[in-house]
Amino acid sequence: MWEQIYAVIQKVPAGYVATYGQIAALAGLPGYARQVGYALNALPENSLVPWHRVVNAKGKISIRSGGSAADLRQRARLEAEGVEFDAQGRIPLEHFQWRPERSFNGNPGQIDLGSQ
DNA sequence: CCACTGACGAGTG
DNA sequence: GCACTCGCCAGTG
Questions:
Q1: Is 60 exceeded by the pLDDT of residue A108?
Q2: Which one in A2, A8, A14, A82 has a CA-CA gap of 20 to 30 Å to A108?
């Protein structure tokens, strides 16, 4: 089951992020947002899954371990991939949320920075 | 088997 | 926009 979730997450291109609900829906598991989080929680740190590209609906890193190395690492990785955070520590989903329809060919296209 | 918990989300006040 | 509640399903004790 988680494999389906992991598969979707691995489809998220660098420089973009997806929400838990979005991942669940794309995995064919609508309403399983919590399970997605649960699945990521169970992921080993050395996993090949880009779990750092998954944030909650507010565009915020949801790790409850707040302040722990985990969320800092996630943010650092995202910034390294070109994702920006606002002063509130959130990601402007308007500009960085992954749009499968738009990247149907597996090519996400260019990130429209400068729009903000 | 029952109850509680959890990297969440949508709805309501 | 923020705080609170209910619903979600799987794991764990």
A1: no
A2: A2
Q: Which residues contact A33 (CB under 8 A, 6 or more apart)?
A: A19, A20, A21, A23, A24
Burial of residue A37 (CB within 10 Å: 0-12, 13-18, 19+) is: buried
Query: What's residue A20's pLDDT?
Result: 95
| pLDDT value at residue A44 | 82
Question: pLDDT confidence of A16, banded at 50, 70, 90?
Answer: very high
Cα distances from A79 to residues A13, A89, A105, in angstroms, run 14, 12, 24
Q: Which nucleotides of C are covered by protein (CB under 7 A)?
A: 7-11
What's the gap between Cα A37 and its chain centre? Answer: 11
Are A47 and A84 in contact by the 8 Å Cβ rule? The answer is no
Strand C and A51 CB separated by under 7 Å: no
Per residue in A42-65, pLDDT (tens digit) is: 888 778 899 999 999 999 998 876
> Is the C-beta of residue A44 closer than 7 Å to nucleic acid chain C?
no
